[in-house]
Amino acid sequence: MKYRNLGKAGVRVSNLCLGAMTFGEADEKSFMHKVGSDEQTSHAVLDRALAAGINFIDTADVYGQDGLSERVLGNWIAARSARDKIVLATKFRFTMGDGANRSGASRYRIVKCCEDSLRRLRTDRIDLYQIHMQDITVPEEETLRALDDLVRAGKVLYPGCSNYAAYRLANSLWIARDGHLSPYVTLQAQYNLLVRDLEREHLPLCRESGVGILAWSPLAGGFLTGKFERGVAAPAGTRLGEKAERFARYDHERNWKILDAVRTVAAELEATPSSVSLAWLLHRPLVTSVIFGARTVEQLEASLPAAELSLSPAQLATLDQASAFDLGYPYSFIQQTQSTW
Phi then psi for 101, rounded to 5 degrees? Predict the structure, then answer.
């Protein structure tokens, strides 16, 4: 396992981050119904991840049901006395509970969500506390001041954001600097060979500001595992095989060409398509860590080799060219004279 700074913060995290979305068996009321693992299996995955050198765990209050993922993780932390062995990240913003303030990023709600997460996680601090998505109904200064208060109180060590528009992140960083508030140290965002939209605005912004990228959905919902074939229905038992319309979102020629390139590189390296896809992200200069999920120890084992997998310049070029996308105006216009912006 390799370790990198969390953005420009001093703490170091493993370049693979274990995502805890699937921890716990949620009932039919949850969007995670039938896609999670029981607590015993989740704890076995966590044990193996820790033994493999993964020290970075990411969850959210909405994962599972009524904080189920946080509770499962908290039970493991307590049972293994593992709190100081991991960098613990969680998120707030989406709907939890009832009432007029059941969602959002107001000071009122942030303080409540933090206290609730601390209780479920059975800890006295959250190492990386992330807003799950920007809240356009709340001034960014209110959100930042609430997070800064939590940092000053020692309940949060570093604030981060997720799913932010570039303009909002730029504004947030300016407000934090101008108001001497704790800035976001990371941006958690969807990033993979199929979805490279971050490269238009977010990556240049993060490069200039020192914000680290935490890539979620690195395998594009499982498409980049190589389990799928052109013209063949998605196999049963896979996430994309559960609903035809979900697989249809990926069933496009550009995506198949990307998967062909991934398979080509995987064959050269005697590696799996999953490892190659994760490794491509780890070769991107601004990526701090790649968040991957594992419902079983076997799934975890399949992803671990990516942490050390080295791709040659030629292999990176193969993947880059296969996954190239239309930047659009003004980015393509700028790229005609400058390779980066």
Answer: -110, 35
